[in-house]
Amino acid sequence: MSTKWAVIDTDIHPRPDPAHVGRFLAEPWRTRYLSGNRGPGYLGYWNPIGVRRSDAVLPDGSHIADSAESLARHFLDVYDIEYGLLNVDDLAIGLSPEGDYAAAVVSAINDVIVHEWLPVDPRLRASLIVSPVDPLLAAREIRRLGHHPGVVQILMPSGARMPYGQRFYHPIYEAAAEYNLPVAIHPGSEGVGIAYPPTPAGYPSTYFEFHTGLVASYIGHLISLVTEGVFVKFPTLKWVIVEGGVSWLPPLLWRFDKNFKALRQTTPWLTRPPSEYVREHVLLTTQPMEEPDNPEHLRQILAMFDAGHMLMFSSDFPHWDGDTPDFAARSLPPALRPRVMSETARELYSLPSSSAADRALDHETSHG
Amino acid sequence: MELDRLSIGVFNVRGTFVAVLNVCPHELAPVCLGPVRGTTLASLPGEYCWGREGEILACPWHGWEFDLLTGKALVDPRKHLRRYQVRVREDTVYITIPQGQ
Question: Which of A15, A81, A129, B31 has the fewest CB atoms within 10 Å of its CB?
């Protein structure tokens, strides 16, 4: 498959083997983890098709996302993906009320990714997951592994105990900025553990309702980050909203700027309209692309914010609601495709440009 | 099955054989790898009525449900599977693929 633009996928979900995670855990956590008690669990909403794609299974029964080798061969190769960012989806542990256990588990998961997944293929990069339930321990984790060349981002659950702009969380951002790592949030754990309900209205009754309303938490965090002055205090910090959709952003920014004119005196550290901080510090990923009946309507929305510098392709592989690179690219106006499909991510994550020939060579080397 | 470079799924819906191209009209997923099952029929709020067992094919990617007997997506009949004519003679199923496909 050849395209006129490179493809960098900013949201791929590996599933590290729990037995391997256990090897990186010290007692008293190892026995507990290996016994199957791994955190606060989920609310139990049911998706009839399953969250992980049932067709992404190899003849031997293993899932493509269960190993770095399979992921490289059966996903990166197939879609000619230049770089793939591994985002472990086991984020609910970060909403456990047991902060020490949560911090130990995320460290062990990060160790598996860094030591067992990243070395397998030069196209792989990883987000370091942290548990925001204890920001000091999260900052310690960033300082433990943030220097690793394959680590390009910090990842937290979008479900949270309080809005992410609040001072409680600033140690995480201080450490991330120190290592020049963007902070990303990913949905799925809303309402889990000590998080607030999945929507401010309360607990949805179905996965359908839950999934459709996930954007509520993104809106809350984004407003909080700007008004609390996170981007004033940490002027180099970038924030990535993964899997939150895009169509809600422009009207929110209009309202945000309108209110700023009247209410700025309550946040005197903001010297410019909120939309300017968002444009400079916040990025979004594409999946799940909204699909209006009239495709032109989506293109109009993409013209209402700086999509050429704020939007990055993501597949969400192997989740049920993923988008293929071809599908995402077709949804975009042609002029935006090179930026969205790869170049914005290449800049954000400082990924070296590599020609197709170099990639092939790297690939040969990595597979011996 | 693979036929003439086309991947085609053949389903036996309670004795009626149906052949469809293994491509979902949404994002081109291998739709035939999804589960064949029933579904909830339209009902009043709070009521659940299961029916059409064995007649519904759900895409393994985004869960779109297709009526195997018509090929149409349940939520939008404009979206449909590509179907092929099927004939059964004695113990053999014949599928007709139009020229040029």
Answer: A15
